[in-house]
Specification:
The chain is about 35% helix and about 15% strand. With about 450 residues, it is α+β, with helices and mostly antiparallel strands. It folds into 2 domains: about 100 residues, no CATH class; about 280 residues, DD-peptidase/beta-lactamase superfamily (Beta-lactamase). The strands form 4 sheets. It has a 6-stranded antiparallel β-sheet, with helices on both faces. Strands 1-2-3-4 form a 4-stranded antiparallel β-sheet, covered by helices on one side. It has a 3-stranded antiparallel β-sheet with strand order 7-9-8. The longest helix is centred in the first third of the chain and has 21 residues. The chain is globular, with a radius of gyration of 21 Å. The chain starts with a helix and ends in a 6-residue tail after the last helix.
């Protein structure tokens, strides 16, 4: 009888997975892809649970609730928490594990990962004095703080799970509110906001003269075919023309890249050309991981050298002491998706862009690079995208009509947002876990000067 119940429960679980993945963006696979569905579920479960526990410090209930926002079937996962990692199974199937390493966060245990254990990441020395150089905040505006607190309470009463809301006005924190269990030091997942940081790392390399972004082919593997014409700027603009499947269904390029691959960038590197370079915008997380791979190779091809560059040229100059940039099992940063940072650290990145590349008395990005990063692309279908930043302007209509035309944003899944507004000298950070629509334009407009 026990065996019969187990088999029946397994069938119910598979049916639940099939039904759950029938939600928008998680649908479109046949019964022959159920094996992939199980492996994607356990891969996602192990990875996000590991980072949620060891990076963000979440409890097991919050982690499970976050996973279940993608699919109720994930509640059937068995998650085993160890001293430095998590193992996930689905009714004894598809066992996948992820390991936590100090400074590197969590990485799926796929293929050879032993080299990651020897990487050393020196802690970032926090500065003294007022934010952004230090941690002191004495610039809270009472009215703006009240407005931010009202928005956070309203969001959470509506089930939108806003976890952090922070406003920088004229270079100082003017409002800062947090949801239950979150504070100013909690690293939170930015998902695709990491794409903007990846571009900024490339901009830093370019400013230092370490990146010849004009050379072609971008990768030697593309020499001799039509992909040889792709330029780095095409990758930055998401207009490379590569045929990368960004849909999040079992077996898609995106899910294989994030939850089943030893090298995340290998998937996009092998993608064939579908459009002429620069002609057509197609949002692709694989494109960002190609940029991360290119930087990794130019920095010496060693995990330690990439980690050192990130710390020495981004984290330390900006005072980002509560940020973790995770690597794939091959040791390359997963620039598309896996960056955890506190709301204050995300705000530091926004302020660097608002300040046209200068921060804490140092120029990290050239003004010319910042201008290019926030300029529309020349694609035939979506010009409102810069160097891994979403633009409010550039098309026939603004993306967010409630906001100034010059606004541009980092954006990530579950409605992560960092808004840069040059004309109002404002940065707004919103971190949370909203499965449904989030009123970005309406809420952020309430936080601008004069609202």
């Amino acid at each position: 009888m026990k065996k019969t119940i187990t088999i029946l429960f397994g069938c119910v679980a598979i049916a639940a997975i099939t039904a759950a993945f029938a939600a928008p963006r998680l649908l479109g696979f046949s019964i022959t892809q159920l094996g992939s569905a199980v492996r994607v579920a356990t891969g996602m479960g192990a990875k996000l649970a590991c980072s949620g526990r060891f990076v963000s410090g979440f409890d097991e209930q919050r982690i499970m609730d976050d996973l279940a926002s993608y699919s109720p079937a994930t509640r059937l996962l068995q998650l085993q928490y160890g001293e430095r990692g998590v193992t996930a199974e689905l009714l004894g199937l598809g066992q996948t594990s992820a390991t936590y390493r100090e400074g590197l966060g969590c990485t799926l245990d796929i293929g050879e990962t032993a080299g990651l254990d020897s990487v050393k990441l020196a802690p970032v020395a926090g500065g003294s004095g007022e934010w952004p150089r230090g941690a002191a905040v004495s610039s809270i505006d009472a009215d703006l703080q009240r407005r931010a607190a009202t928005i956070l309470a309203r969001d959470n009463a509506a089930g939108l799970q806003t976890r952090a809301l922070l406003v920088v006005q004229d270079g100082r924190i003017a409002a800062e509110v947090y949801g239950p269990g979150i504070d100013a030091q909690t690293p939170l997942l930015g998902w695709s906001m990491g794409k903007s940081l990846t571009a900024m790392m490339l901009g830093r390399m370019e400013t230092l003269g370490l990146a010849d972004t004009g050379s072609r082919p971008v990768f030697e593997q593309w020499r001799g075919d039509e992909r040889a014409a792709i330029a780095m700027e095409d990758l930055l603009h998401m207009s490379s023309g590569l045929d990368f499947d960004e849909t999040y269904t079992p077996g898609s390029d995106a899910t294989r890249m994030l939850f089943r691959s030893h090298s995340a960038s290998d998937v996009a590197l092998a993608s064939p050309a579908a459009f002429a370079p620069g002609a057509h915008f197609s949002y692709s997380s694989g494109t960002t991981n190609l940029i991360a791979r290119w930087m990794h190779e130019r920095l010496g091809g060693e995990v330690q050298s990439s980690v050192d560059f990130f710390r020495d040229e981004i984290l330390q100059p900006l005072g980002m002491a509560h940020t973790v940039f995770e690597v794939d099992p091959s040791g390359v940063f997963v620039g598309s998706s896996y960056i955890y940072a506190s709301a204050r650290d995300w705000a530091r990145l926004g302020l660097l862009m608002l300040n046209r590349g200068e921060m804490n008395g140092r120029r990290l990005l050239s003004e010319e690079w910042v201008e290019r990063a926030a300029a529309p692309n020349s694609s035939d279908n979506e010009p409102r995208y810069g160097y891994q930043f979403w633009l409010n302007r550039g098309g026939s209509s603004p993306r967010y009509p409630q906001l100034p035309d010059d606004v541009y944003l980092m954006q990530g899944n579950r409605r992560q947002r960092v808004m840069i507004s040059p004309s109002t000298n404002t940065v707004v950070v919103r971190l949370g876990w909203s499965a449904s629509r989030y009123p970005t334009g309406e809420n952020f407009a309430e936080l601008l000067p004069g609202a």
